[in-house]
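Lab notebook, design round three. We kept the backbone fixed and only want residue identities now. Task for the bench partner: fill in a sequence for the structure below.
Input structure tokens:
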């Protein structure tokens, strides 16, 4: 067998193995479903998911409930039939690599930052897991993190039966002044106890579930020792005040709120 024939044979085996893993993970029945999944996931990602199922972290995988340039979130079931959210950072997404650097470099928790695409994305997933864990133990309302491996993060599902909770911007908020105070207290706990700044907080990163706000998308959250942490905090404050001002809430001045949070 010549070199070219050998490479073709190896590629065919890899594709066959990849298809088998996709079929086992997602129980796909139609070729177009398989093709859509094949475009998104490379073999290392599929193997990571497959191992999570074999180890009992995940029992079943279902369809995507949120898709973006950086990641996709899937609804899944855990070993006790509990709802899970499986966030998969896309290793094929290259355009967000440069934007990630400033949120990792300067954060004292991360040393020797890898700049290759896969290594950087693995660190990004680990960063969100650590941020969620530190926030959760300080009683900040965030999804409970369960496990992270490579570019796959598993956490509690905020919602019910595969339907995610809506973003706060998409619902009629009952008693917005009360919710405003809850979010401010979470920002303060995040800063004072978890020693973190969200860094991208707005109505697009807050879920509203059973009358309570939940902060999500903490991948870009930074340590308060990060050189840009206070600029990020001030931006978070402006975003939250802008949103609740539109809802008729008598918000605090940005500067007053900033001093209260860091005090």
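Proposed sequence:
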């Amino acid at each position: 067998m010549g070199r070219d024939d050998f490479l073709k044979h190896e590629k065919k085996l890899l594709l066959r193995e990849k298809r088998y893993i996709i079929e086992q993970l997602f129980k796909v029945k139609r070729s177009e479903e398989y093709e859509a999944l094949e475009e998104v996931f490379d073999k290392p990602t599929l193997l990571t998911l497959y191992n999570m199922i074999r180890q009992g972290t995940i029992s079943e995988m279902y369809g995507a409930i949120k898709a973006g340039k950086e990641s996709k979130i899937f609804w899944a079931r855990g070993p006790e039939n509990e709802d899970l959210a499986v966030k998969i950072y896309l290793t094929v997404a290259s355009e967000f690599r440069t934007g990630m650097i400033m949120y990792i470099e300067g954060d004292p928790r991360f040393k020797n930052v890898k700049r290759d695409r896969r290594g950087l994305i693995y660190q990004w997933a680990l960063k969100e897991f650590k941020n969620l864990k530190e926030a959760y133990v300080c009683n900040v309302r965030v999804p409970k993190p369960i496990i992270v491996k490579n570019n796959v993060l598993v956490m509690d599902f905020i919602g019910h039966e595969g339907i995610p909770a809506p973003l706060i911007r998409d619902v009629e908020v009952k008693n917005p002044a009360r919710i405003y105070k809850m979010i401010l207290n979470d920002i303060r706990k995040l800063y004072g106890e978890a020693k973190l700044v969200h860094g991208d907080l707005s109505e697009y990163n807050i879920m509203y579930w059973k009358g309570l706000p939940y902060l999500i998308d903490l991948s870009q959250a930074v340590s308060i020792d990060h050189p840009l942490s206070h600029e990020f905090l001030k931006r978070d404050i402006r975003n939250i005040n802008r949103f609740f001002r539109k809802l008729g809430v008598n918000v605090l001045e940005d500067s007053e709120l900033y001093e209260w949070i860091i005090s």
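Keep this in mind before ordering anything: The domain at 3-160 is CATH 3.30.200.20 (Phosphorylase Kinase; domain 1).
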